[in-house]
Amino acid sequence: MATSSAIGELIKKSGISICAAFLCAISMNLFLVPAHVYAAGINGAAQLISDILFDRVHLHLSIGLLVLILNLPIAVLGWYRVGKSFTLFSFITVMLTSFFLTVLPVHPLSSDILLNSIFGGLISAVGVGVALKYGISTGGLDIIAIFLTRRNRNASSGKYFLILNGIIIIIAGAVYEWQYALYTLISRFVNSYVIDMIHTKYQKLTVLTITDQAERLTEAIQDQFDRGMTIIPSYGGYTGTKKSTVMMVISHYELYKMERLIKAIDPNAFTNILETNKIIGTFHTEEQQMAIQAMKHGEHSQKMEQTLGAQDYERFQKLFNPSTAK
Predict the structure, then answer these.
(1) Domains of the chain, first to last
(2) Which of 31, 80, 147, 240 is least crowded, fewest Cβ atoms below 10 Å from its Cβ?
């Protein structure tokens, strides 16, 4: 049963990756590229590089190929510094986007640059938003922003998205006409707004789950996420039935997996998901969670200690295996 469920989940995520990549490619080849309006992130960088190479040195490199080339070093960074499962599906989506950009013709549906900006941003946002809703990234700046945020925990991913996309817009305006930069800003606004409607603009989310299966749910979450939780004794307002409220903070990339886990443990649980502006305290990354999982099973290494930090490493060593603690 578990294997069948895992296969079903893999098929679902693969289908979502294909749809997201196809929509991103459609938005570029039918709307943004013909209008010289630039997409977000690495796709926009590839589009800009392709235009500059063709206009300045008459060298034609397809945008699809450049998307793949630019994402290769980012995929390596993500694999070792962000998380393997997250990076894997991100790169699958990148490869599919590169494929669709190459095989689909560049064919403008409208000569109106404003319409192209709006619909290009909207269509790509649907693909990106749906992918994020199912715990998949479209790669590129997502991985870079997460990595930079982990190095500087006082900054948000949104700040890095703004800086990296701003560089693309400024270069486009300086090299070409500034009107293209302004229309790119319009496209980015539409893109961000629609993604927020489909998924969430917040990087951290607070999950409050009211359940009578708190012990089972806590064990399952610790087994799959290693997220810290607070258990609050509760009771039903109408019935007076004793329950527990499980409170935790997760990243928005973990939301889909967390929703499925809660539903599997207690289909009758009531869950409230709140947007979190800021957290103060420990919040483990996926890489740190993997190290903690390994320590649970008796594995210990210098790399784990470097990943968690000496203090956290010693704390979890005492927690999981007090007899061997320093």
Answers:
(1) 2-198 (no CATH), 204-276 (3.30.70.120), 286-324 (no CATH)
(2) 240
